[in-house]
Amino acid sequence: MRDPGTPGVSVVICAYTEDRWEDVLAAVASVRAQSRPALETLLVVDHNRDLLDRLGKEYKETDDVRVLANAGPRGLSAGRNTGIAASRGDVVAFLDDDAVAERDWLKHFAEAYDDPRVMAVGGRTEPVWASGRRPDWFPEEFDWVVGCTYRGLPRGRVRVRNVLGGNASFRREAFDAAGGFATGIGRDGNKRPLGGEETELCIRLSRARPDAVLLIDDRAVIHHRVPEVRECFRYFRTRTYAEGLSKALVARSVGAEKGLESERRYTTRVLPAGVARGLRDALLARPGGAGRAGAIVAGVLAAAGGYAVGSVRARRGGVTFSVVGTGEGGGRD
Q: Which helix (H) or strand (E) holds 295?
């Protein structure tokens, strides 16, 4: 029986392909094993009838797991909005479909909401490399490329501009104030690996609720699988370019000052320090030092190129996105 003084937490997991079947089952199992139980787990399937039917059969006899079809356009943002609208919790948490949460994940999230000003809490995401180890050339400063916490983020429980969507939670009031995730930003099945939808939402939330507190608590840990295809430089370059495109959309929505506020510190402080470390390691004959320094430079150039292209497209009206409400929670008491 849940303590009536603590928020009920609904967990939303968005899935789109049967290729991740075992990953999805592991993600759900990790939620069901939490030390602080979730109120419910909502599996939102993105326009894949076979996967929807298969998951529906898998969890047909399970009271705490619901399987839903994405009620909006194809993509992660609409899938999350579908989960928000159907959820019953006072807090809605999001977990990637190829990640597993540590046992106290929800416990650390829930504790932060004792402060009524807190509108969002994110956690720490650790990579699980398919090859068994980090590629020597892959800089920790760019772990966001594979959906993980990167070097340069603050440690502990601290205030941030935005949380990272694959390991995050929001108070329901946040969506009431700011609306849901913007469609037209972020992942869309097998298309270019865009992102930025959680950044745009968090900035919009802070504008709607200037008193809102957004936190990262690095004790709320999940482990995110990194497939071999994402361990190669080609994916690294594609993803950094796509991030530039995404940042152009975010800046279009909320303005460049806010949209690039954290990125300025990252590019002027964190990345130069990473290049210096890589060059030092190269001089000391440590594996991958020169590669890491080169990857940082290449990543910056690719992201800058994507931002330039995205900005031109935005000015010409070649890209659009929309912000929608998330509706009332389904069946809330």
A: helix 289-316
Residue 127 in tokens: 């990579």
- Residue 115 to residue 308: CA distance in whole angstroms: 40
CB 245 within 8 A of CB 193: no
Half-sphere exposure of 151 (CA within 13 A, CB side): 14
Q: Phi then psi for 300, rounded to 5 degrees?
A: -65, -45
Residues of the chain with pLDDT under 70: 1-6, 184-195, 253-261, 317-333
Q: Where do runs of H (alpha helix) occur along 155-288?
A: 172-178, 197-208, 233-254, 256-259, 261-265, 271-283
What six digits make up the tokens of 41? Answer: 């787990």
Instruction: Quote the CA–CA distance of 52 and 17 in Å, as a whole number.
Output: 10
First to last CA, the chain: 15
Contact status, residue 185 vs residue 200, Cβ threshold 8 Å: yes
Any idea how long the chain is?
333
